Amino acid sequence: MQDAKLTAKAHDAHNTVIHLTESVTVGGNDLLIIGGPCSVESLEQMETIAARLGQSTLQALRGGVYKPRTSPYAFQGLGEAGLAILDRVRRCYGLPVITEVMAIHQIEAIAAQADVLQVGSRNMQNFDLLKALGEIDKPVMLKRGLAATVQEFVMAAEYIAAHGNPNIILCERGIRSFDNYTRNVLDLGAVVALKQITHLPVIVDPSHAAGKRELVPSLARAAIAAGADGLIIECHPVPEASISDARQALSLEDMTALVDSLRPIAAAVDRVIPTASGDRQPVLV
Ligand code: PEP
Ligand code: MN
């Protein structure tokens, strides 16, 4: 395999800082905490999360509207109606939103209504999708494939960069192994390695790694201690009622407690979890 060129780290201090909005960044001193449901279910659901967590707990909201489900009979996401919900919430609350793109034909609409486009694990090596995402200028969050090596992960990011988009966030979300007690195995060694071999921001998704809500806070703390640039965590106003991934969703109270518990760990590794700035006041539209 050829080596990475554009995503490779040239020297220790070489770190890319990506702007989600003017004030929300990842890869610099500020940690990026993204939270929200697995799937966007309603405007009320997303507004509740934004209103309760948007000021001091989260810097960005997540929510899938195109869902890669194992079963074709499972909920597939709200699609365009879900995108409209995300767009409304980001405008009303001044919070950037991130959502998954599954196909090339979805890119234009998602890029118009979201701040970050997520490539899910199942699409990490969908090379045509990666090439097409290289042609936009919005940040792309690339999740590690279910059984992808670190090298394959970096080369997938290299596709996006080689096609013109340098705004790539890597996301470690656990890899498959023999034990299904945890849904996946969170590979913190890969986080450390990725920070050493690439200059891209690396965030961790402890929710899909753990698959069980009671494991999420400790894994999140370990990720920050290991040098991750941020976290993406599933939470829901009524976790047990989540349409997808209910077992791993945190309540909004638990999400706030978790982020508060991260602050001293962030300080110990010379990072900060920012609280809301002026542009994140709720506005009526
Ligand atoms: C998700 O983030 O909701 C998701 C489907 O994640 P992954 O692609 O990591 O399974
Ligand atoms: Mn999920």
Structural commentary:
It is built from 9 helices and 10 strands. It is α/β, with parallel strands linked by helices and 285 residues long. The chain has one domain (18-67, 76-268): Alpha-Beta Barrel (TIM Barrel), CATH 3.20.20.70. Strands 3-4-5-6-7-8-9-10 form an 8-stranded parallel β-barrel, surrounded by 6 helices. Helix 1 packs parallel to helix 2. The termini are far apart. The mean pLDDT is 96. Bound molecules: phosphoenolpyruvate and manganese (II) ion. Phosphoenolpyruvate (PEP) binds at residues 38, 64, 68, 120-122, 143, 173, 208.
Short description:
This protein is an alpha/beta fold. The protein contains 9 helices and 10 strands.
Number of domains: 1
Backbone CA Rg:
17 Å
Name of the CATH first level: Alpha Beta
Order of helices and strands: EEEHEHEHEHEHEHEHHEH
Strand line-up across the major sheet: 3-4-5-6-7-8-9-10
Which SSEs are present, and which pair or pack?
Layout: E1 18-19, E2 25-26, E3 32-36, H1 43-53, E4 60-62, H2 80-93, E5 97-100, H3 107-113, E6 116-119, H4 127-133, E7 140-143, H5 150-162, E8 168-172, H6 188-197, E9 202-204, H7 206-210, H8 216-225, E10 230-234, H9 252-268
Parallel strand pairs: 3-4, 3-10, 4-5, 5-6, 6-7, 7-8, 8-9, 9-10
Antiparallel strand pairs: 1-2
Helix pairs in contact: 1-2, 4-5, 8-9
The chain binds phosphoenolpyruvate and manganese (II) ion.
Phosphoenolpyruvate is lined by residues 38, 64, 68, 120-122, 143, 173, 208.
